[in-house]
Amino acid sequence: MPNRLASSTSPYLLQHADNPVDWWQWSPEALEEARRRDVPILLSVGYAACHWCHVMAHESFEDDDTAALMNSNFVNIKVDREERPDLDAVYMTATQAMTGHGGWPMTCFLTPDGKPFHCGTYYPPVPAHGMPSFKQLLAAVTQAWHERPDELREGAGQIVDHIAKQTGPLSEHTVDEKTISAAVAKLRQETDPGHGGFGGAPKFPPSMVLEFLLRHYERTGSPEALSIVELAAEGMGRGGIYDQLAGGFARYSVDEAWVVPHFEKMLYDNALLLRAYAHLARRTGSAFALRIAGETADFLLRDLRTEQGGFAASFDADTDGVEGLTYVWTPGQLAEVLGPEDGRWAAELFRVTAEGTFEQGASTLQLPTDPDDATRWVRVRSALLEERGRRPQPGRDDKVVAAWNGLAITALAEAGVALERPDWVEAAVEAASLLLDKHLVDGRLRRSSRDGTVGDAAGVLEDYACLADGLLALHQATGESLWLAAATTLLDTALARFASETPGAFHDTADDAEALVHRPSDPTDNASPSGASALAAALLTASALAGPDRASAYREACEQAVRRAGVLAEQAPRFAGHWLGVAEALLAGPLQVAVVGKDAIARAELLVQAARTVHGGAVVLAGQPEAEGVPLLSDRPLVGGEPAAYVCRGYVCERPVTTTDDLATVLAS
């Protein structure tokens, strides 16, 4: 049979290229084949780091008998949800509507025109836990299609109509001081007082909520907001969800105490958490937050960076089919590597017990307290990391996703300036250069690339928005005009192509994108910012950096979008963290800090001082006076021949200052 996955830029699809299943990629040709054969489509959606996706692949898609049933009765389509978030959104909404829950692998049965009539997630090879076997499901769907095709088609049409009614734009609601205060109060009520974070197991890193609360603390001085952040940051950074040897966070914790992670490591989580920990470090001076930020950035640059300068999507949860194999330890293994004395010390330090905290007597590594012997700690950690490097390693999904790289660019640029790490800023520059060079094709953004080859999937709203936000952060970090020009071009395209008919609402796909059975539009912040909230954030930043011909339109579009998400922010703040962060920046600003100077060292000193002091959401930029293409530096000359900082807040400007002490005073006023 033809191997239609072999040319894919998706490592996930390539994992299935040798299956006996006659897989298709999503395409008009695949749908036409289903119409020609008059058979249903079996749509299987997953991603490379997904544990249960691997399990179902081994149990079913590599089985010749199962594949024969699939090939005889269906057109089988395999989709990487990270390459095609539009398809994933449409059919995940259908899965949740039919079953009350969702997840991956996602298994959907569609009519030849793409309408879903039966959806689920993982199916076992034999009946278990009240679920039919996958073969039984295939047989039942095949029989129903032969006996009741009209009924299935009619039901599929009703499901599509239901989805359209349930996913319309939210009504407008003002996000003001009252709304934000209520959100903080609700988050305080939902905080786990023992371990930090929100809710019970499984527990996910609330990175965008932490950023919002830090901004709220900066604006209001609320000790409650700061305490929520510090408790969660401490719990995550000292728990097993954090890689205590090499840095970097896993996707989530399967327990409420952050002890046992689901071991996949995602770029978006680590980018968002780097930003939050760096913000906490510069705001409070926390040595702990500074360490976690530094180690997370090191993980990004060391382990996720690709040869082309971008950042890979993820590391798998599994190693050789075993979850956590690379990462967990027993007391005996520690002693074998370190010797009996250091082994006992490390076991106590990392809470590695004979019973184990994970499976089969093994434990994840936690670090509840800082080591009391720094020299010993360095020796032990280095030895364990070296030994871990000899173990089998999880696979890396090395495709470069535009949106997630945008998040990494933002985090590295902001943190690099605030924490005086120019190497982080340079890494952000290289990633941004790759995206503009490879992912922009004929003026439009593509979703992903691999090994320098761009994929066919069109960029969705989050790609345009997150990359634009990253480019704006780079514009501020470097003072170079090209990043601002590229960012505003992306924003203008997003406003023109993704806007809904309802003012302030946005679709996740462009108006000229492939027409699906439903055009997705989800404003909810989940594992990463929604496309709409990311766009609102970028629009707000651009309104303070772009010239007067664009500034007011960008800010108005941002304010309208935030109002459209007001109901979500009020009722479910845990799923509107990015929106609330934008709302905080709207209330606190605009705050602009423009630093001009011909002396790069003096200019950088003022810039760093500003970055450490201003609130999240403010804009800070340094460069040469009257730098071409940099509106924020226009009409802002040197003062007495010396570098100067111009501070404007709420459309009112202070007198320019020339010393870091005077700048700190102005910013603190």
UniProtKB/TrEMBL annotation:
Describe the location of the Spermatogenesis-associated protein 20-like TRX domain by residue ranges.
2-163
Q: For this chain's UniProt record, which GO biological process terms are given?
A: carbohydrate metabolic process
Q: Which residues cross the membrane?
A: none
Q: Which InterPro entries match?
A: 6-hairpin_glycosidase_sf, 6hp_glycosidase-like_sf, Ssp411, Ssp411-like_TRX, Thioredoxin-like_sf
Output this protein's name: Thioredoxin domain-containing protein
Q: Which PANTHER family did the record assign?
A: SPERMATOGENESIS-ASSOCIATED PROTEIN 20
Mind telling me which Pfam families this protein's record contains?
Answer: Thioredox_DsbH
Domain of life the protein comes from: Bacteria
